Amino acid sequence: xxxxxxxxxxxxxxxxxxxAGCGHPGRPSPKDPVTLTMxxxxxxxxxxxxxxxxxEFNSTVGKEAGIIINVINVTAIxxxxxxxxxxxxxxxxxxxxxxxxxxCTAYPKVAIQFQQTGRLANLDSYFSQxxxxxxxxxxIEEGRLADGGLYVFPLAKSTEILYLNQTLxxxxxxxxxxxxxxxxxxxxxxxxxxxxxxxxxxxxxxxPGDGKMFFTADSWFNVAQAGMKxxxxxxxEGETLNLSGETYAHxxxxxxxxxxxxxxxxxxxxxxDLSKTGDLVCSTGSSAGILxxxxxxxxxxNTVEQVAYSILxxxxxxxxxxxxxxxxxxxxxxxxxxxxxxxxxxFIKWLTASEQNMRFISSTGYLPVTRQAFETDMDAHIAxxxxxxxxxxxxxxxxxxxxxxxxxxPNFAAFDDIGKEYEKRFKTLLASRREAYLDxxxxxxxxxxxxxxx
Length: 454
Known about the structure:
Elements: H1 2-18, E1 34-36, E2 38-40, H2 44-59, H3 61-65, E3 67-69, E4 75-76, H4 80-92, E5 103-106, H5 108-115, H6 129-132, H7 137-142, E6 153-154, E7 158-165, H8 166-176, H9 186-202, E8 215-217, H10 220-230, E9 236-237, E10 240-241, H11 245-261, H12 271-275, E11 282-286, E12 296-298, E13 304-306, E14 309-312, E15 323-327, E16 330-333, H13 338-352, H14 354-361, H15 371-384, H16 388-403, E17 405-407, H17 415-438, H18 445-452
Parallel strand pairs: 1-3, 2-4, 2-5, 8-11, 15-17
Antiparallel strand pairs: 5-16, 6-16, 7-11, 7-14, 7-15, 9-10, 12-13
Helix pairs in contact: 2-14, 9-11, 10-11, 11-17, 14-15, 15-16
């Protein structure tokens, strides 16, 4: 009880500072309370934790401040698609659209349509520069839209990491001399992919061309984005793809050649699917996907093998700086009377403070958003996490926080469509060239590069 009391006292001190002027006519108070509605799309443990945090806020800090998050009307929408559909209806002014909530989880791409019509609060008005400096800068930056205002506040983030089947890799390394240090670069991964394909192919001499795949990426668009940033350029210039120049040509060739030759998988699903059948040794993917990786492989003959996974920092192209993408949802606040906007900001400050934020993401693959969480609280948090997979992921991401620069993809309406189109064209090109290569052709790197640039 004493520990809980100390936590409550700290929260009360924080909100007391926030509400130093409780008598201000534009601010709530216990005598003049404000009720806010909220939508979120979290399910499972995240929904339970979010709802418990809202209850805690209402009964402690919110009660003291005169702010109520309406628990009865908190809408846990079952999927991002359903949430976005409802928000699209609101943005379009459809006759059957529900009323816009005061607070809602959203990605920046969704928030754009509301900001453009003046229906979002600019949260810069309610956070000082000192307060904002307590958050990971790139996480704040993602929520800034075209006019530079802060319209989506970070709540749970992810980056990309390298998933490694340590059991398969150690077996491969013992026979070939492959070095795990090679996994630190994409060029090293490309070389290992060729080596692994040849090594596995040699095990079936009666079936030539039967080698196995070593690596894939859940998003080749992200590989290109990160690679360009690592090498001092950008994949997006203005609002169009930048595929010209030697930098992109190197990124393309590094991944294209081993894919055509068979060492890199061309796959439409998630890499975690291939990992479960032993058809892959390593892959890059979101840290939020950690829970999709188990500890067994089920082979085609239904033999099951126990395996161990390692989580490594995101690879870097040779000569580049340590840089990785960051993405994730946040909270947007409806443009409203000052009292409601201010109340929403108080709730967001409380919810994203390190203690509450760490509780929210504790059983997931998501990352906290404050510098305090990474720099002060993370070691204790890792020690308390029971899931070994999440422990490994947090150790890797904490090292990335110290050594890497996180970058934020651009926020504009057509960005997702550009990414999907690039991903589709890249995979289609790889698949067709792989088929031609198996029929006796060469890799055709130069002509393939010219084709992707069209």
